[in-house]
Amino acid sequence: MKILLVQDVEHLGKAGELKDVSGGFGRNYLIPKGFAVLATRGQIKQAEERLAAQRKRNEAARKDAEALAARISGLTLNFEAKVGEQDRLYGSVTSADIAERLSEQLALEFDRRKIELDEPIKRAGSHEITVRLAPGIMPTLTVVVHGEDGPSSTPEPAETVAAE
């Protein structure tokens, strides 16, 4: 029996695929549950048109992601923060902060979940960050965190004055 999958079915296939299954499996399980329909010429043609349209949308999205990756690649974002001893920040720079700054620089909305940051940045200095735009498109950018006083705000040891 030839069926056309309407939804993804584990161990069988993805939505839009044409499959050959046993009659009982198709009639008693797949079709009544709404996972598949009987494969007629009309159904097959509609599925092919949907798949072609989906491929076009995916290709356009991939081109947009590649163009955005070219803009992001090599970009440097500067952050100022209060820095304590040993260049540790009093707060942290999170993926939300990076996404906000990236949105300002690129003049478009940017989702914080696309920024691969295992844990917030808690030290001053330069950090390489990967941005996940699409499968296989992952540009890197540089995040530079420095103290509010300047690039290095590590306190100098105080001079001691001997009492006379």
UniProtKB/TrEMBL annotation:
Pfam name, any one: Ribosomal_L9_C
Highest rank taxon of the organism: Bacteria
Domain Ribosomal protein L9 span(s) in chain numbering: 13-40
GO biological process assignments: translation
InterPro entries, A to Z: Ribosomal_bL9, Ribosomal_bL9/RNase_H1_N, Ribosomal_bL9_bac/chp, Ribosomal_bL9_C, Ribosomal_bL9_C_sf, Ribosomal_bL9_N, Ribosomal_bL9_N_sf
Signal peptide boundaries: none
GO CC annotation terms, alphabetical: ribonucleoprotein complex; ribosome
Coiled coil segments of this chain: 37-71
GO molecular function, one term: structural constituent of ribosome
Keywords: Coiled coil, Ribonucleoprotein, Ribosomal protein, RNA-binding, rRNA-binding
PROSITE patterns xref list: RIBOSOMAL_L9 (PS00651)
Family: Belongs to the bacterial ribosomal protein bL9 family.
Protein's job: Binds to the 23S rRNA.
PANTHER family per the UniProt record, alphabetical: 50S RIBOSOMAL PROTEIN L9 (PTHR21368)
Protein name: Large ribosomal subunit protein bL9
Gene: rplI
